[in-house]
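User: Could you write out the 3D structure of this protein bound to magnesium ion? I've included everything you need below.
Assistant: Certainly. Input first, then the structure.
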Amino acid sequence: MTTSYRITLLPGDGIGPEIMAVARRLLDEVSSSNGFSLVYDEQPMGGVAIDATGQPLPTSTLEACKAADAVLLAAIGSPQYDNLPREQRPESGLLGLRSALGLFANLRPVKIIPALIDASTLKREVIEGVDLMVVRELTGGVYFGTPKGRVEAEGRVRAFNTMAYFDDEIDRIARVGFDLARQRSGRLCSVDKANVLDVSQLWRDRVEAMHSTSYPEVELSHMYVDNAAMQLVRNPRQFDVLLTSNLFGDILSDEAAMLTGSIGMLPSASLGESGPGLFEPIHGSAPDIAGRDVANPMAMVLSAAMMLRVGLQQDAAATALETAVDRVLAAGYRTGDLMIEGCTQLGCRAMGEQLLGALAG
Ligand code: IPM
Ligand code: MG
């Protein structure tokens, strides 16, 4: 009997459905050629779900995600929902999903693809050989801390959020960072703002403690987040695993993405202690280019590869997708975001066709 996996697909908004269509065709191909099958359950989330049900994360969508072996998300969000109360916006659906599935560990690999070196706004000698992993805490910190809100006080309006971590929340994400560092080059850099924030001091204390008790062989360093932002563009090769909190990781991972030339290239995995992982590109729904068949589907395809490798332990199929991306780029095909002189510009669908062809070859 062939192994079969249940995959909940969340195409979402903007360019989401276009890039998801590409990933799905490629997944069909690599699954059948590697002897397993994928059963898809497509569900609305984000703006499309708001339109259909009034909620960004309908209960039926959440249930389908919980029942799946893995969840593949394209992108959510659109300016048309910006005036809704925060908890009814597409982004709240995503945060709700991360939280409900317990996906506290967000892995964002940043690896320079040789063919794209000249697509980066940074110099070749700065980015050549960059291969780092951002480990971002995803279900705590200022994204979820309470109290939060907006009040009127003394005739003024005051809005506030709370950046807070429990010691055990820091420990479980630190463990993910240390384990990854051990599998990779053995270096871990923990990023905080311990010179100013109490929550960061606890973060640093816990990471230090775990280092000496459980991972003495890992080379640990600490860096303030402002310095880390600078070092990422000054000398990114110094980093291997970057461990950081929810908000800092959000910011630093967009910055790190630009080392690779385009945010349209970066996949991510969000994992919990158990249950299905969520795999999604780190980019957004790009409403400005939606429906025009110009989006870059490669971060989506690489997210599907991460799903195969990390979520389903189907390494060969994952490698096949990654190799297809490398081949198509090496052959000079580019979407608009990566276009440089001498290359051939393709739309989203045509890029999908090239990727499909590259799977076979
Ligand atoms: C990301 C995104 C999300 C985040 C938004 C869409 C809520 O920017 O995954 O990085 O801030 O986590
Ligand atoms: Mg972000």
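The chain is about 40% helix and 20% strand.
User: Perfect, thank you.
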